[in-house]
Design a protein that fits this description.
With about 180 residues, the chain is an alpha+beta fold. It is about 35% helix and about 25% strand. The longest helix is centred in the first third of the chain and has 29 residues.
């Protein structure tokens, strides 16, 4: 009984993850003409890491999740994502806070602080919350027809095995004992 409930729950979680990744890809595709668009789920912004400036904390190919911060709560050591000229997103660590409230940042793998870049409230996109290691490969797999076909095949095997009523009844039978 426990094994079946666990199997159903894992299938449900996997399906929810895959469906949310597909929705993110579709929304990114639809909004690709807007260079300032960042995929998000509620207050959480989802971004793909394409450089190694934050290794070992964040690797190339990871997906990072950031949330719009309260600027006054940012401290030295926090990792933030900000926009620089050319509409480029950069995710680096705060190493100092200037008197005017702007931030000095540096990538963990970089030898020097970021120079010539003003980082302040107006260009901060979010504060790093967590990462999904290698998550970009999952998202990228949905960008071609083979990935979509694989997604629908996987979904066709998982969804029929899911029975929400069984999950709920198993949960309540365990908690009522």
């Amino acid at each position: 009984m426990v094994r079946k409930c666990t199997s159903i729950l894992v299938g449900f979680i996997l399906s929810a993850f895959i469906i949310s990744m597909l929705i993110l890809n579709i929304s990114s595709y639809i909004n690709r003409s807007n260079p300032e668009y960042i995929s998000s789920i509620g207050p959480y912004k989802i971004m793909k890491v394409i450089t190694g400036s934050m290794i070992p904390a964040i690797d190339v190919g990871d997906i990072i999740i950031a949330k719009e911060p309260d600027i006054d709560s940012l401290r030295v050591g926090d990792i933030i994502t900000f926009r620089i000229p050319g509409n480029i997103l950069v995710t680096h660590r705060i190493v100092d806070i200037r008197q005017d409230g702007s931030f000095i940042t540096k990538g963990d793998a970089n030898l020097q602080e970021d120079t010539g870049i003003w980082v302040g409230e107006s260009n901060i996109v979010g504060k790093y919350e967590f990462r999904i290691p290698g998550g970009a490969s999952v998202i990228d797999s949905f960008k071609d027809y083979c990935g979509l076909i694989l997604f629908f095949m996987l979904l066709s095997f998982i969804v029929p095995k899911m029975n929400i009523k069984q999950i709920i009844s198993a949960f309540y039978s365990k908690t009522s004992m």
